Structures are given as structure tokens and as C-alpha cells.
């Protein structure tokens, strides 16, 4: 893992709303409307959080056609985030 990856994941996981989004998406993929409703937040706010999670590789999305409409469905990716002194040392010495 590179330093930029650690920083992106750390930033993405530093917000409790984003952690809750991961919790929800680990149970079942959802579209932005469903997430916004469940979180009681506006879609633009949820979208901003999803972009951070996608940028860190924690979430991915697919465009799905439902009738004549396209919906973006978000799902959580499997990941493991672990950091300690040894990991930090390797970031700068490798």
C-alpha cells in the first residue's frame, strides 16, 4: 500500500456518516435515493460522501437500467485497513 492510499482511506473512514454508509452497503447495495432516505440526508450530501468512499476504493458503483431509467447502484468493496508503526515505517522506507 502506498502513502496516498493510506491517506485516502484514512480520510474516507474519518467521518461517521461515511462509516455508516459502509455499514449500510455491506448489508445490501443501494442507490443514492435509498441511502439518502435511510440516512435522512440530502442526495447531494450523500453523493459527496460516496465520492470520498469511491476515491478511496471502499465503494464502487454500477449503472443499472430499470425500465427507461438508469440508476447508479453503490456497493461496498471488501477491504482491510490496518496501520501501526511498522506499516508507517514501510511506507517511507520501501
CATH-level-2 architecture: Orthogonal Bundle
Largest sheet: 3 strands, antiparallel
Distance between the termini: 10 Å
CATH level-four homologous superfamily name = Winged helix-like DNA-binding domain superfamily/Winged helix DNA-binding domain
| Mean pLDDT across every amino acid position | 95
The H/E string reads: HHEHHEEH
CATH T-level topology: Arc Repressor Mutant, subunit A
SS-derived structural category: alpha+beta
**SS field, number of helical segments:** 5
- Percentage of helical residues? 55-70%
Tell me the domain tally. Answer: 1
By CATH reckoning, the class would read Mainly Alpha
- Strand order across the largest sheet: 1-3-2
Number of strands: 3
Low-confidence stretches: none
Inertia-based shape: elongated
Strand content: 15-25%
Quick summary:
Helices cover 56% and strands 19% of the residues.
Question: What features would you describe in this structure?
Answer:
- This protein is an alpha+beta fold.
- It has a single domain (3-75), classed as Arc Repressor Mutant, subunit A, CATH 1.10.10.10.
- It has five helices and three strands, in the order ααβααββα.
- It has helices spanning 3-13, 16-27, 32-39, 43-55, 85-93; strands at residues 30-31, 59-66, 69-76.
- The chain has a three-stranded antiparallel sheet with strand order 1-3-2.
- A hairpin with a 2-residue loop joins strand 2 and strand 3 (69-76).
- Helix 1 (3-13) packs antiparallel against helix 4 (43-55) and helix 3 (32-39) crosses helix 4.
- The radius of gyration is 15 Å and the shape is elongated.
- 14% of the residues are buried.
- The mean pLDDT is 95.
